[in-house]
Amino acid sequence: MSASSGPSIEEVIAAVPAWAGRAVAATPIAGGLTNRNFRVDVDGRPHFVRIPGPGTDLLAVDRDNELHNTRAAARAGAGPEVVYHLPRWDVIVLEWLDARTMSNAAFAAPREPARIAAALRQLHAGPRFRDDFDMVALSRLPRPPRLEPWTVPPLQDRGAAQVAADAIRALMWDHAGIARNSKGLRLCIAALADLAKRLPEGATEERNLADTALLIAEAALLRKESRGGHFRRDFPREKRKWRGMHIEW
User: DSSP 3-state assignment of 161?
Assistant: First the structure.
């Protein structure tokens, strides 16, 4: 698990004490926008597991509010029960409901709008949600301050900048290219960091090049497996736990 990608489904399953020693099978559910979703069958009984997606904190998703409102909807009889909550990761395990995703075609079915209206009335008759959601009020919030334009400083030493760029390319080719290993990647990262410190004033393109190279080398060092175009000589096989996982900064 990385800090940004959240727990794996295997880690979530292991964190639910009631599932220990039982027959558990997990199946990913496609289509989530801000979450990673799974169907988890425990001794044949299905559950819905929602794991927050990476970077959703940047979308101002309030997970405490979401949990409160999910429980309120369940008490109103308009949503599934919260079976488990793992606050360490803001993971929610819900009872499984056999249903289908709403679509334009499904909405146009006979009596469908009336069924939806009845469900909404039931929801609004239940416990109050924690916060109000008012789009008009949100539009009146103060706008963030306008950023001052940035002027690119003039390049002081074009020759030194070119030497640095060539060195960065050589380091990446030698140590972070097609075949990589821990020793070479660590050497590459140290050398890139040193080069970045010594770039001349105004070498903005070379600094971008150094930053990008560092990100690639550091990500390759963290990923202790081989997959697709990423090959580690010291970890030549794929690892299941990395399937669908990404490292983000």
Answer: helix
User: Residues 141-193: pLDDT tens digits?
Assistant: 787 788 788 788 899 899 999 999 999 999 999 999 888 999 999 999 999 99
Q: How does DSSP classify residue 27? A: E
* CA 101, chain centre distance (Å): 23
**84 and 172 together in one domain:** no
CA angle (102 as vertex; 43, 6 as ends), nearest 5: 55
Q: Are residues 70 and 165 in the same domain?
A: no
Range(s) of the domain holding residue 64: 9-98+121-130
Same structural domain for residues 163 and 233? yes
Q: What sign does the dihedral 129-133-137-142 (CA atoms) show?
A: positive
Q: For the chain, how long is the longest CA-to-CA vector?
A: 74
The CATH number that applies at residue 16 is 3.30.200.20
Our separate counts of H helices and E strands in the chain read 8, 7
Q: Do 125 and 175 belong together in one domain?
A: no
Q: What is the C-alpha to C-alpha distance for residues 59 and 61, in angstroms, rounded to an integer?
A: 6
